[in-house]
Amino acid sequence: MNKLRYAELITQILANSYGFWSSLKNSLLFWCLIAGLVLLICAKTKLLFRFYFWLTKLMQRYWGMPRICRQYLVPMFWRILRSNWYTVLLLVVLWILFFYIDAGSDLIISFVGYIIKDGEEWWWKLLAIYFLFFLTLLTALAIWAIPFFLFTGERVNRINLDRRSIQRFYVGCRILSIVATVPFLILANAFFFRYVNEDVANSKVIGVNGAILLFLAVFDALILNLKTVKAPMENATVLLRELVGRVFPNYYFNLLTRLLLIELLYSALVLLAVSLIDENLRDRDAYISCIIGGFMVLSGVTVFRLIFFTNGVDMKQKDIRKRVDQLTSTKTAAESKKFYYTLFWFLCIFNLTFFLLPSMTAINTMFVMLAVFAFLINYVDFCRHLAVAEKPWQKILGYLGIVIFLVAPNITPPGQFVVPLRELKTASAQNLISCERFSKGLGPVDSKRLLENAIERRIKFIESHSKAADSSNIYIVCGMGGGSRAGYFTARVLGLLDNKVDGFWSNTLLYSTVSGSSPGTYHYLKHRIAAPLEKGELSYLQHIYRQNFNSSGMFGLLLGDGFEGAFGGLINRIKALFSPSKVYTAFRDRNVRIRQEYDFALKEALAGTGNEKFLKNTFRFGVDISEPDDFQGFYLRNQDTIPIHLVNTFEVNSGRRTVLSPFVAGDTTLFSNAIQPLQDISFSNSIAKRDITYREAVNLSELFPFLSAASTIGENDRYQFVDGGYFENYGLATALDVVRYLESIQSPVLKRLKIVLIKNSLQRSKVEKSSLQLLAPLVGVINAPFTGHANQLLSDGIKKFNANMVVLEFDPDADTSKISLTRALTTKHIKALDEQAISQVIINEAAIRRLSATAAAQRRDSCGLNN
Q1: Are strands 690-691 and 422-423 parallel, antiparallel or unpaired?
Q2: First CA to last CA distance, the chain
């Protein structure tokens, strides 16, 4: 008995111990105590000191720093990072853009796609590779260049105060040159890891970069230091320096010229290597991306060795003093002044060119990013040094420049990001009616403009043009959002369904679209009206969606719109001189530029005059977009012969869905809790006679996060509209509102109604890991509209309609499922989308064609089959 009690006691003690340990191991305090104990042991055994010593020795040896300056390496490294906070900030942003958003993968894929593109002249490809290096070099030079000419006498005296000050200054200059190579490292990693749009494990990135650094160190020690290799290289370097020095005696320009000549050779070798890769190789694109990544590594090493690196391991105090005297000398100040101002004004003019160009669709977004980041780093660096210059006016300019850098992105002057209202040219003064359920204060309008009447007329049109008027399907088509991917896929599927399913076009009641599917539907309608037999539809869509609509958005986000905001609308007077558009706008912000670029591409595609030449797509010679389609006017002119297009967007400050309709809802409650700007007098007292362009309507639905800005409409500056996907990404909410309206009037077409949802991605709930506590609310806000609200409405729709709701679902194993949200599709993207569109139409054709149960019974009755 006692043994049994002892056993129970021991079991209880063990259980309590395990419970105590389970609680203890989840305690933050416990692990803090463990960490403190480890640090105490390390301090007692001098492990931390040994690690610090090993780290500084490695830095000193690998960076070629003087041994006598080893103790200053780590302190000066942190000091350089603190004083150059703007450089660190922009480099972190650059890393995030490439590695933590889907668009980063698109930048790499787009560049590689251009390099392997058939039919493109080799010199354009060579120029693209060389330009990639050149802009990365400009970013590196913006980090490295020090304006010695702005050093005051007092500052020079502080530098030469004592041995420590001299050593610290010299080490700081050398460390800044190390930081200047980071842009090459970021680009190299992007080409190595981001060609495939997948998450990259940090351990993989660290491992590959560590292997590269180890290889370079071994290569430098075992190969470059051999006398048979080192001597010829030094002789060639001296010869090239002397030859270039005859033209550019300035130290900085001499180095830069030599580097550009060497890199031209590198670029040619890269292009040669690309051309030698078998076109039928399975992962050819990925290999080419790695080759370009290797090119960036080699370029970074060359820049480091030629411009930034000198082997100063054995330098003595007198050698360091001599070098610092050279850096702070009058001659260096004069040379640095020429170089610094040349770099500054070159970057200013370069970015001003972007600002003035009519279109940026032919310019790779990566080039835009690098040019803008180089300018911003150089600009803030210049302002920082001005702020500590001798003259008062220089100090004022320096502080003012830094304030502009921090404040300008948050300035939105009146008139910027505004969608203007236009006169409704096709409005009629006949059959004017008023309705109690109109928006408050809205005057009487023509009865033809009522949405309820338009739906009724469209149904009558369908019945009058249908082979089996009482029993054929009537379709409501919903388009999912997703950037250019959604636009191309939606337009392509609509064209295929029109061609495959008899009566699909003529029997479609309306479209309800969100985000990218909105301009896609507009482009489909324009081509369908111009060429009903699908003539040239594929080339038409490809010309529009091969355009790169990311560059204008990225430039406006990073620089252009802030520049406009800081200087006001006056700057746009200059910009208007360079635009082929005859329409003057107070601001030509990124929203306006993207709308105009879409219209340029649409006009060219309809006329069949589009091509992919750089100059043509940049300056848009001979393309007039001064007479765009009015949204309401477009439908009033076509008089019920085309499906009604309901465009969905989202209002930020009220959190409400917004519906842009080409017709006025007689009952504003038709769309539940929705803003309807085109019949709301808060947007204009004369809103009954006002309109917007069709392009502005669909682009209000596709205000891509960050690449587009929140827009206002008309005179109402309180409501700000963004991408419709913020609320619900399928367009089902508006479509179901229309269904409820048809139910309220007991419309007979309900028995024949089919909902067709065109999805362009899986958009399924996928939980791989939990979120950090502080990030969990933000993650929830992001996921709610895209996978929460949308899929809830989809589930409700399937329950309500059963077989009468057809969803074109993506194949999860297809390449298309890996196409990210972007406004720039490559040839590879379009090919994958075409294959997926054809596949989905074939799979769902029978379901779309199949009559609803009630319609089928009516068909049998009309044919006498039930007897």
Answers
A1: antiparallel
A2: 89
Residues 691 and 689: their CA atoms lie apart, in Å, by 7
> CA 511 → CA 476, 589, 629, 661, 736, distances in Å?
6, 29, 18, 11, 12
Which conformational region is residue 48 in: left (phi greater than 0), alpha (psi within -120 to 50 degrees), or beta? Answer: alpha
Residue 24, number of CB atoms within 10 A of its CB: 11
Tokens 């494990």 correspond to what residue?
Answer: 201
Cα–Cα distance, 6 to 10 (Å, whole number): 6
Residue type at position 24? L
Give me the phi and psi of 193, to 5 degrees please: -115, -20
Q: Would you give the DSSP letter of residue 534?
A: -
Answer yes or no: are the C-beta atoms of 522 and 645 closer than 8 Å: yes
Residues in the chain: 867
Neighbours of 265 (CB within 10 A): 9
Rounded CA-CA distance 784/780 in Å is: 6
pLDDT confidence of residue 218: 66
Q: How far apart are CA 575 and CA 803, in angstroms?
A: 54
Tell me which amino acid residue 114 is: Y
DSSP 234-251: HHHHHHHHHHHHTT--SH
Which of 728, 754, 690, 487 has its CA nearest to residue 598? 487
Q: What is the mean pLDDT of each run of 10 residues along the chain (867 residues)?
A: 59 56 62 79 73 72 78 87 90 87 79 79 88 93 88 84 87 87 90 70 68 68 61 67 72 81 89 85 83 89 73 81 87 88 92 88 90 94 87 88 84 85 70 51 72 92 72 89 92 92 91 95 92 70 90 90 76 61 69 91 84 75 76 88 95 92 87 90 86 94 88 90 91 93 90 92 64 63 69 84 87 62 81 90 88 53 44
Report pLDDT for 488.
95
Taking 3-state DSSP, the helix, strand and coil percentages for the chain, each rounded to the nearest 5, stand at 65, 5, 30
Q: Report the distance separating Cα 824 and Cα 107, nearest Å.
A: 9
What 3-state class would DSSP assign to 663?
coil
> How does strand 474-479 pair with strand 508-514?
parallel
Backbone angles phi, psi at 103, to 5 degrees: -60, -25
As a whole number of angstroms, the distance between CA 688 and CA 693 comes to: 15
Q: What is the pLDDT of residue 769?
A: 59
Decide: helix, strand or coil at residue 450. strand
Angle (CA) 104-712-428 rounded to 5° is: 125
**pLDDT at 659 (0 to 100):** 95
Predicted pLDDT at 663: 92
pLDDT number for residue 479: 94
Residue carrying structure tokens 């090919």: 831
- Give the per-residue pLDDT at 367: 93
Record the pTM: 0.85
Nearest to residue 195, comparing CAs of 818, 734, 668, 673?
A: 818
Q: Rounded CA gap, 27 and 16, in Å?
A: 17
- Which residues contact residue 98 at a Cβ distance below 8 angstroms, ignoring those fewer than 6 apart? 104, 107, 108, 186, 189, 190, 194
CA–CA separation, 285 and 113 (whole Å): 8
What residues contact residue 143 under an 8 Å CB cut-off, 6+ apart? 84, 87, 176, 179, 180, 182, 183, 377, 381
Cα distance between residue 751 and residue 473, in whole Å: 9
Tell me how far apart the alpha carbons of residues 60 and 63 are, in angstroms, rounded to a whole number: 5
Q: What's the CA gap between 42 and 52, in Å, rounded?
A: 12
Q: How far apart are CA 726 and CA 236, in angstroms?
A: 60
Q: Report strand pairing: 716-722 vs 644-651.
A: antiparallel
Kind of pairing, strands 711-713 and 418-419? parallel
Q: What is the sign of the dihedral through the CA atoms of 51, 56, 57 and 61?
A: positive
| Structure confidence at residue 639 (pLDDT) | 81
Q: H or E segment at 486?
A: helix 483-500
Question: Across the strands, what pairs with 298?
Answer: none
